[in-house]
Structure to design on (367 residues):
C-alpha cells in the first residue's frame, strides 16, 4: 500500500552542532482499511532549549504523537492531528514539571497526514511544509516567528526582516504553554504531487524553488540526501531534517470521511479571526512611526531558536514503544481558531509595543 505514496526522511547533525535535536516519526498504514481510517503520517520536530532539552522535547513530541495517532478513534484528519499534537504537548509539559532544568524546552512541529485524495498539515513554529505540483511551488505553512507577526500588522517589511538578528524567535511551539494555537492547512491531492517537510536547518540555506528542482529530479530518498548535502555545503550551522513524499497513486479512501473533512475545513475557515493591519489603526498614532526600523523592534519574551546548543539523537519511530500520555479531563481542548495567525495574547503585546514606539517617536521628534 505504501508504494502508492513514496516516503523518505533523512536527518543530519549539520556542520556546527555537536548534537542532533531534530526528531521525526513516520506511521505508514498497513492495509487499505487503515488507509481509509487513518492514512499515512509524517512528523518533523526541531527541538530547542539548550543542551539536551531540545532533544528531549522533540523526541517526546514525536513519540507521543505516534502513540496518540495509533490509538485515536477520531474521524476527521484535522481532529487526528490536533489530538496527537495536544497529547505531545501534555507529555512535554509533564517533563518540564518533573525537571526544572527542562522548563524552557520546546519544539517546532509539522504533522502531515495523507488519506485518500486529501492532505492535511498541522504545525507550530518555523519548520516548513512545501508542496510542488507541476511547475507550481507553494509554501503551505507560515513560519510562526516574531518578525512575521510584525510583518502581518505592517510594522515591518519583508526586506527589513531579511537577516534580522531576531529572525529565529518563534511565537508558537510545543511546550510553550498549556494552550496551543495550531495552524491547519488542507489540500486536495493530484497525482504527481510532491510534499517536502523540513526543519529550518534546510530552509535557511536552500530556498523553496531550489528544493523543488531537487525533489522533482530524483527519488525521495536521494532528494533528501541531496538537500542535506546542499545545506551542509553552505554552512550547515543547524541540524537538518528533510522528508519528501511523492504521490504515485491515491491511497484507499472513505468517501464519507472525506466529506466530513471537507465540511470541517469549510466551517473552520469561515471562523478565522482577521489579522489587525497597520491601516486599521488610528492614522494620527502612526504619523511619526514611518522611521521605524528593524533594529528598533523590541524583542518579546519567547523561545529563541539561536539557543540551540545540543546535538540530535536521530529517532525513526515506526511502531516503536512510546512513553504513555495521560490525557485527563482537565486537558485544554478549546484552542480557538487554529488558523487565525496571531493569538489573542500577541495582539495585546504587539498593540502595546506599537503604542510605546509611537510615543517614543513623538517625544524624540519633539525634543
Amino acid at each position: 500500500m505504501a508504494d502508492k505514496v513514496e516516503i523518505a526522511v533523512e536527518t543530519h547533525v549539520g556542520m556546527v552542532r555537536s548534537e542532533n535535536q531534530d526528531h521525526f516519526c513516520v506511521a505508514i498504514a498497513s492495509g487499505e482499511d487503515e488507509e481509509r481510517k487513518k492514512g499515512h503520517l509524517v512528523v518533523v520536530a526541531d527541538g530547542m532549549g539548550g543542551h539536551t532539552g531540545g532533544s528531549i522535547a522533540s523526541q517526546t513530541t514525536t513519540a507521543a504523537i505516534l502513540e496518540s495517532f495509533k490509538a485515536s478513534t477520531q474521524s476527521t484528519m484535522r481532529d487526528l492531528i490536533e489530538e496527537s499534537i495536544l497529547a505531545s504537548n501534555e507529555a512535554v509539559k509533564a517533563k518540564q514539571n518533573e525537571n526544572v532544568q527542562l522548563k524552557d524546552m520546546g519544539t517546532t512541529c509539522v504533522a502531515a497526514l495523507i488519506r485518500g485524495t486529501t492532505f492535511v498539515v498541522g504545525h507550530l513554529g518555523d519548520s516548513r511544509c512545501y508542496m510542488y505540483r507541476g511547475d507550481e511551488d507553494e509554501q503551505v505553512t507560515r513560519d510562526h516567528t516574531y518578525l512575521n507577526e510584525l510583518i502581518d500588522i505592517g510594522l515591518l517589511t519583508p526586506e527589513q526582516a531579511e537577516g534580522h538578528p531576531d529572525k529565529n524567535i518563534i511565537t508558537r511551539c510545543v511546550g510553550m504553554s498549556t494552550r496551543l494555537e495550531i495552524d491547519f492547512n488542507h489540500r486536495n491531492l493530484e497525482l504527481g504531487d510532491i510534499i517536502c517537510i523540513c526543519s529550518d536547518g534546510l530552509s535557511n540555506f536552500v530556498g523553496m524553488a531550489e528544493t523543488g528542482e531537487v525533489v522533482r529530479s530524483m527519488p525521495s530518498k536521494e532528494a533528501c540526501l541531496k538537500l542535506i548535502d546542499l545545506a551542509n555545503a553552505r554552512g550547515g550551522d543547524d541540524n537538518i531534517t528533510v522528508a519528501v513524499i511523492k504521490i504515485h497513486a491515491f491511497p484507499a479512501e472513505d468517501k464519507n470521511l472525506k466529506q466530513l473533512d471537507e465540511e470541517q475545513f469549510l466551517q473552520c475557515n469561515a471562523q478565522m479571526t482577521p489579522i489587525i493591519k497597520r491601516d486599521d489603526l488610528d492614522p494620527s498614532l502612526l504619523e511619526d512611526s514611518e522611521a521605524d526600523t528593524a533594529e528598533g523592534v523590541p524583542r518579546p519574551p519567547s523561545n529563541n531558536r539561536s539557543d540551540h546548543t545540543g546535538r540530535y539523537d536521530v529517532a525513526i519511530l515506526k511502531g516503536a514503544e512510546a512513553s504513555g500520555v495521560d490525557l485527563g479531563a482537565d486537558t485544554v481542548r478549546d484552542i480557538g481558531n487554529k488558523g487565525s495567525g496571531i493569538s489573542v495574547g500577541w495582539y495585546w503585546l504587539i498593540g502595546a509595543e506599537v503604542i510605546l514606539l509611537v510615543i517614543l517617536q513623538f517625544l524624540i521628534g519633539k525634543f
